[in-house]
Amino acid sequence: MKRIIPFLIIFLIATSVFCEWETHDKVLLGTYLLGETIDVLQTHEGLHNDNFSEGNPFIKDDTDLLISAVLTTSIIIWASNHFEGNRTAILTGCNAVKWGFVLTNHSAGIRINF
User: Fold this and answer.
1) Cα(61)–Cα(85) distance, rounded to whole angstroms?
2) pLDDT band, residue 5 (cuts 50/70/90)
3) How confident is the model at residue 76 (pLDDT cuts 50, 70, 90)?
4) For 53, phi and psi rounded to 5 degrees?
5) What CA–CA distance (Å, rounded) separates 34 from 7?
6) How many other C-beta atoms can be found within 10 angstroms of the C-beta atom of residue 98?
């Protein structure tokens, strides 16, 4: 559960800071954050399960996983806020990639266990 806290903090900050965003962009950001949280939990399960191996060479343990997730999410939020004219395209593309990872992990058999 403590692994989800950084994402909840980012979500709360994002929803309060970007209140001037269009509703569809807020929904896209929320959808991305949900996908990121699920992906982190799936990757955590994969790291601690001998039946799976992590394909990302930069992620060796939970600390690397959280740093990578927070850094990636921060860059996406920054880019979405900085390039306002392309915000919807940025968030749509990031959602497509993130949910692709989630579905790939799921189809490989990785399930989230609480």
Assistant:
1) 37
2) low
3) very high
4) -135, 145
5) 9
6) 21
Domain segments of the chain: what residues? 24-106
Lowest-pLDDT choice from 26-30, 39-43, 48-52, 108-112 = 108-112
Is the pTM above the cut of 0.70?
yes
DSSP string, 63-105: HHHHHHHHHHHHHHHHHHHH-GGGHHHHHHHHHHHHHHHHHHH
* Closest C-alpha among 65, 64, 74, 58 to residue 43: 65
- Greatest pairwise CA separation for the chain in angstroms: 46
Give which of 39, 29, 55, 18 is closest to 100, Cα–Cα: 39
Residue 75 neighbours by CB distance under 10 Å: 11
Neighbours of 9 (CB within 10 A): 11
Task: Give which of 15, 64, 24 is closest to 44, Cα–Cα.
Answer: 64
Report the length, in residues, of the chain.
114
Joined tokens for residue 49: 């399960």
